[in-house]
Amino acid sequence: MRISQLDGRRVALWGWGREGRAAWRAVRAALPALPLTLFCNPAEAAEAAALGDALLDARTVADAEALSAFDVVVKSPGISPYRPEALDAAARGTRFIGGTALWFAAHPQARTVCVTGTKGKSTTTSLLAHLLRAGGHRTALAGNIGLPLLEVPDEPTPEFWAIELSSYQTGDVASSDVRPEVAVVLNLFPEHLDWHGSEARYVDDKLKLVTEARPRTAVLNAADPRLAALDLPDSRVVWFNREDGWHLRGEALYRGDAFVFDTAAVPLPGRHNRGNLCAVLAAIEALGVDAAPLAPAALDFRPLPHRLQWLGERDGLAWVNDSISTTPHASLAALDCHRERRVAILLGGHDRGLDWHDFADHLRQAAPDAVVTMGGNGPRIHALLAPLAAEGRFALEAADDLADAVARARRLLGGQGVVLLSPGAPSFGAYRDYTERGRHFAALGGFDPDAISAIPGLGVA
After folding, report:
1. Measured between alpha carbons, how far is 281 from 261 in angstroms, rounded to an integer?
2. 164-167 contact pairs (CB < 8 A, 24+)
3. Measured between alpha carbons, how far is 151 from 164 in angstroms, rounded to an integer?
4. What is the tens place of the pLDDT at every residue in 11-49?
5. What does the buried/exposed string (b/e) look like for 87-123 if buried means 16 or more CB atoms within 10 Å of the residue's CB?
């Protein structure tokens, strides 16, 4: 659905975060006389009222009755379409769409590379834009990475669009009836179960980018068993992490049997991120661009904040900010990056019901020096790990909050080792988002939060 097709319909916005504000600006720019209703919380309603938009009616109750009064509801990504009130309104005929769907409908000819996956998608999307730009191609970097698509101006016109999509947004692409040129899926682990309702639905929603959006080329990770089992009759499939394509042998990057370069010096934390360089190069080739000459430009890549971010050292302790970690698998990857050093890992946050047993099993074989639990699911993680700690595998303590967790980590390490924030859980409740949590961690370690928070390269360049 195009924005112009909203004209003459009863339209509401649901959510007033950055995506919601971007949708309001886009709709208002195209349809200045269209009445709009906004469903949001009281503080956001006051903020919206201050805009002076006489045709914007802010309401704080979004129940099924209220939502079903509208033909179309433009929903922010964080609001689940599986909520009872949304399902009820949809059954009565209300159509729910997102800003991503509106953007794709308005840009059917855009040369898009859409990237999703449970882990590594932001770094992969940013690296994709970096390498394309290194090759002289004007490229937009946008999406879930921190810049809504509806905020990116159409001029100057990008040659390519590098777009990160969360599992909340992949269905929007599928519903837009516009086929992405290239879609990349990196990996699949359980996440966001509170939004999706189950692991099976999470996987189905994530995979809509390739199963329903029908990209012209799907770039898939051959090392992920669920991806390796996919059958995509409407797309050309290109595999990475397979010996006949882009893959790593140790730290060496190969294209088939041809050695390309040694990735040891590439500033990508963790082998999984260097492996995702293979996904980037496969996607670039799918666009018809010679990727091999661009690969060494990865040496100049600037890592993203809050993603295994090395903050520096203070008083003998190294500080690593992996605040974006929201799954136990991400925390395990973070530990693997620092397996040669003494580590105190800070775990816990909002409890979405994820299973931590695999994490605990891993710690039987390769444990850090210390684990400090915190947050809503802290007690559950603590109880699971307590028997291992009792065996002397690692020190285990429970903290009241992040500040307390940092203080305990300092004491447990005794002035030598790595303080690793990789919570494996969202920040909801204690913080607005993972960025605020990471900034607080940086400040607790004695670093300037403003100096570590900017995402480089957003927009068109």
Report:
1. 13
2. 164/115, 164/116, 164/121, 164/122, 164/124, 164/125, 165/100, 165/114, 165/115, 165/116, 165/121, 165/209, 166/77, 166/116, 166/121, 166/192, 167/116, 167/191, 167/192, 167/195, 167/196, 167/202, 167/205, 167/206
3. 14
4. 999 999 999 999 999 999 999 999 999 999 999 999 999
5. eebbeeebebbbbbbbbbbbbeebbbbbbbbbbbbbb
